[in-house]
Amino acid sequence: MEKEIKFLPNPKAKLMDQVREVLRYHQYAYRTEQSYCQWILRYLHFFGGKTHPRLLNSKNVEQFLTHLVVNRNVSASTQRQALNGLVFLYVKVLDMPFQGKIAPIRSKRHKRLPVVLTTEEVKVLFLCLDGTNLLMAKILYWAGLRLMECLRLRIQDVDFGTRRVLGTPYLINSPKYAGIGWCFFLLSFPPFSPERAGSWKRERELQHV
Asked: How many CA atoms lie within 13 A of 205 on its CB side?
């Protein structure tokens, strides 16, 4: 079995340019690139900003991750994101896998009930929006798209006949997006009047008295 050829960045480039070069070689998403670069910079600044990461080790990474939880009170997902960025730096960019296990103080996950708006509350929310913002809100609500998926959506990606999203490999043939065509037809529906929304709010307030 042939050994996989490892991509190595230009050694003459600056550290962060090397990080971006490797990220783009592996075709990471732009948002991931931004996130990883931010965490790497924070990690370097935590140790003075002048120490090269080659001179640091897994214990330093553990110290930084513990600092995020103890002093910055970050969530478990944020701490995990920081760890992923630093693992990428050492394994993919510097070719220095960690020796030993990294065991920082972990952030505790807080159980929270999700806040779900009722149908009437969503209708009142739509009354406060107009134009592009209203269209985006309806797409997010009815089709279940994530925010960035909605922002990247283009008119040529929508098939009005079948009410499906086309043109993007990660959206096509997914039942999650089957209702997106309804979002555009909703714009032709007569909206609630402000008077009706006001009376609905008053009724809700009286119910809780």
From this structure: 6
Residue 70 domain flag: yes
Per-residue pLDDT tens digits for 66-81: 999 999 989 888 999 9
The number of folded domains in the chain is 2
**pTM of the predicted model, to two decimals?**
0.61
Identity at 110, one-letter amino acid code: H
- Based on the fold, state whether residues 68 and 137 are members of the same structural domain: no
Chain-centroid distance, C-alpha 12:
32
**What secondary structure letter does DSSP report for 142?**
H
Domain of residue 174 covers 119-196
3-state secondary structure 42-106: HHHHHCCCCCCHHHCCHHHHHHHHHHHHHCCCCCHHHHHHHHHHHHHHHHHHCCCCCCCCCCCCC
